[in-house]
């Protein structure tokens, strides 16, 4: 072959892997994203609020109730939650004082031990008055971790709602 024929002949095509590498990366990202979307749709959303829509509609009533609660001036504190262990019964107490620091006696106190991530573990709480303004209950948290104690103290027309997040420890052997 002469030099002129070599220069006019088509160049030999080389295999270039880079376009295929880019396509592979994009395909992998697509598969991973599709998998995450599928798993997100199949799993729990973590929302454990009953009647969220109805509660949203009654928002103004909630604001009025909070205003009335502030006007009451009750001071409420929870004790005993720091000693709670999973699967073991423990005592909690709620102290309720009025504006002047006097015990609020004769109230009805009830509520829920609420697990934010698993509604199936929620437990009702019914507290009895152990002393004027001091209400006690025995509870048994099913699991360690974060719980909410949601209580409602009511005396006549006066209502006070109380919520406190608590942490339940792992059960210690021999205790």
From TrEMBL:
<keyword id="KW-0472">Membrane</keyword>
<feature type="transmembrane region" description="Helical">
    <location>
        <begin position="20"/>
        <end position="40"/>
    </location>
</feature>
<dbReference type="InterPro" id="IPR013783">
    <property type="entry name" value="Ig-like_fold"/>
</dbReference>
<dbReference type="Pfam" id="PF05751">
    <property type="entry name" value="FixH"/>
</dbReference>
<keyword id="KW-0812">Transmembrane</keyword>
<keyword id="KW-1133">Transmembrane helix</keyword>
<dbReference type="InterPro" id="IPR008964">
    <property type="entry name" value="Invasin/intimin_cell_adhesion"/>
</dbReference>
<dbReference type="InterPro" id="IPR008620">
    <property type="entry name" value="FixH"/>
</dbReference>
<protein>
    <recommendedName>
        <fullName>FixH family protein</fullName>
    </recommendedName>
</protein>
